[in-house]
Amino acid sequence: MSGKLRNTKExxxxxxxxxxxxxxxxxxxxxxxxxxxxxxxxLPGHPVSVHSASGADAGxxxxxxxxxxxxxxxxxxxxxxxxxxxxxxxxxxAVAGAILLLGLAxxxxxxxxxxxxxxxxGLAGGFLGILLQWLGTLAWEWWSxxxxxxxxxxxxxxxxxxxxxxxxxxxxxWRRRIRxxxxxxxxxxxxYSGDPEDFYRxxxxxxxxxxxxxxxxxxxxxxxxxxxxxxxxxLVAAVVLVTAVGPxxxxxxxxxxxxxxxxxxxxxxDPVDPGTLAAACRGGLPMSRLCIHQLARIGSQGPxxxxxxxxxxxxxxxxxxxxxxxxxxxxxxxxxxxxxxxLATPGSFGVMRLSVQAGSxxxxxxxxxxxxxWMITAALVPAGSVIMLLLQRRHFGIRxxxxxxRRFVLVVVFAFLVLAAACTVTALRALKSIAPRVAAxxxxxxxxxxxxxxxxxxxxxxxxxxxxxxxxxxxxxxxxAFWTVFLLAALWLLSRSPRVASAHDVGKFRALLRRHGGGSxxxxxTWEGNTPWFTHDGSGALAYRVVKGQAIVLGDPICAxxxxxxxxxxxxxxxxxxxxxxVFYSFHSALLxxxxxLGWRYLPVGEETVIHTAGxxxxxxxxxxxxxALNKAARxxxxxxxxxxxxxxxxxxxxxxxxxxxxxxxxxLPEMGFTLGGLDELKDPDVRLMLAVAHDGSIEAVTSxxxxxxxxxxxxxxxxxxxxxxxxxxxxxxxxxxxAALHLQQEGVRFLSLSGAPLATKPLATKPGSGAGSTEGRAxxxxxFLAWLSRTLEPAYGFGSLFRFKAKFHPEYSTLFMAxxxxxxxxxxxxxxxxxxxPEVSTRQSITLARTLGRLN
Length: 857
Prior knowledge:
Elements (H helix, E strand, L loop, with lengths): L7 H10 L2 H17 L5 E2 L2 E4 L6 H7 L3 H6 L5 H4 L7 H22 L1 H28 L3 H6 L8 H11 L5 H21 L3 H20 L13 H25 L20 H7 L8 H11 L3 H7 L1 H14 L3 H31 L9 H11 L1 H12 L10 H28 L4 E2 L4 H7 L18 E2 L2 H26 L3 H4 L1 H14 L14 E4 L6 E7 L2 E5 L9 H15 L2 E7 L4 H7 L2 E12 L11 H13 L2 E5 L6 H17 L12 H4 L5 E6 L5 E12 L2 E11 L8 H16 L3 E8 L13 H7 L2 H17 L1 H8 L5 E9 L5 H12 L5 H14 L1
Parallel strand pairs: 7-8, 13-14
Antiparallel strand pairs: 1-2, 3-4, 5-6, 6-7, 8-15, 9-14, 9-15, 10-11, 11-12, 12-13
Helix pairs in contact: 2-6, 6-7, 6-9, 7-9, 7-11, 9-11, 10-11, 10-12, 12-16, 12-19, 13-14, 15-22, 16-17, 16-22, 17-19, 20-22, 27-30, 32-35
């Protein structure tokens, strides 16, 4: 029961051995940088330094552009521009991009197709970009005209184009991931930098999509992949993080080629020219608007103000982390920051217009209509981010505990009041040191402005120049100090969850679970979304979740057998106090006498399949299919590995994550929860994994097994997670379950539970194990309804197919029941159970599910 899992180092070694073209291009880029002189900063015979912003010197010999390529007739520059980096930094990025990104493309496509993709997309991006620029100059379009004389070199154009081409041959999961991040990356540079090479990269990436479809080995139609909640959170967080970098790109690039670049004015703190200040304020009182603006800029400078200017970027970074973890607070933070940026956009353009008048930053005149158009355009990124977040809101439903949220609010409000009071008191004590002279009331109004990035206020709304050291310190550092407290408190809040907040209860609950077991499905009660409840003396417990006013209890009570009746009755009193309707779901037949005493109705909701290890053997004709799977695995070098998530190397956990997400992406229907575990449940240290490992160390399939305890010892294991990548061997799951059964038989466990099959009916030849409950359930119209529901849901979720698959192992059957006090409430209970299984189903997924069901009926 052992196998060789490839670790991260082995995977990297195998990756690098298969990318000769990528290493060749990395060497070419480095040699071209040395030969052209861009690596050292000068060209041979040209003492002028190479400017990284435009690549002007390198462009004279090797660069492409409207003037150089089209008008100058130097068509070879379409090719040379793909080989020569523009400076030392670009050389480093080109070499790294060749090895990692072009290497990935070569690994997916093969060497010949990777060469074709690099050249085709690189040449197409450059040619189409220059053609569009040339057409723009004919129409006197401003950007095309301003950038027509630029000659650029950029090896990343072909590298990114090859990577986008390779996505066409990837699985749905990685195709979506790389395309989202890649498009977001190149678009941010196009929008916030606007240099010609950014435009060429975008066109190369877009050209790679149809080329990738042509080069795809398997000619099957591309379909829009669905995302799990985890994957959607990751993608949204990545987009928010990338958009946060946009203003920094504009700030570092110091460009004015695009209206989005003026968003950098929200984050800039440019110095005031003394000559400009003197000229603007020469007229005395009343001061001109330009003089006021220049004085206000002085008041908003300094190290503290510079740090304050970058608070929005840091906040969006923290928000992205919260979004990645599915936290509602991260969602609110991202929406709030983007909304503030959106509302502050007119102020940033007001600063820009005054800067134009002062002769700084932008070196061309603006008319009012053009300024309005650019202002509206610059608002698109924060507006688009807010719209995206609103549409994906349902994926970020993990809330911090209310007590922790209250602590966060108290800490933030207290910090604000203390620091604002410090600014106010300090300024009042040195009021005469503030220029211009102001009344005390103005000082009170000024204090809150110390916490706002200066250019968010429009530049002229906070004209106070403190000349006293204490006042200057307070005004400089109150804002950064407050936001430091806010960020630390936010990070703390994002790390909190109901499970962490009730760590004592969770530990106590798990201790009871280890002592009493809670049945074969007991470990499911520890999953996220279930709330532990204890009897008054702490000797019994159960787990429930409240949905639509229904308190749904999962599995059997966790207590000594003779305490089950008292535990259930005490819980009913607890529900009555909270005005909840109790429902017991997926419990075993031993509890039926309790519900008979209560006068409740119960009905079967599924069948659990159990394999007893005593005398277990796979002899006989009925085991032929399972033996065939084991024999085939032996011939192909497939092995089974019994392990846990914590014991796996990073490469293996990443591969399991990819398998799971690929399974979700291939499935058009929403992923279910409640009694069906996912990736998060695999990370539980008590859960074990059985992996099917191929001869080369890759993982072919995954199953997870939950422990069943009794008197503190593990006496059995229950199957939960079962996933394999699309196109894998059909017999791999039979191999894994059979291997697990043989392995656990050697360990001496009593039985294996293959878990329950919802709405399934055991074969008639099997002896009933639940007596009156089963008979009564089948004699009612409710059972007929459940049978119809099982047939209806079969094409959507395949519960019956899963049940028939488990029948290959010739298990014993144990009926699972649901009990409720009033059968008339069954429709409400059904809706609550549907919400428990599908808590975050989207409208699109609901329509897909309805269509799937409609095709059957």
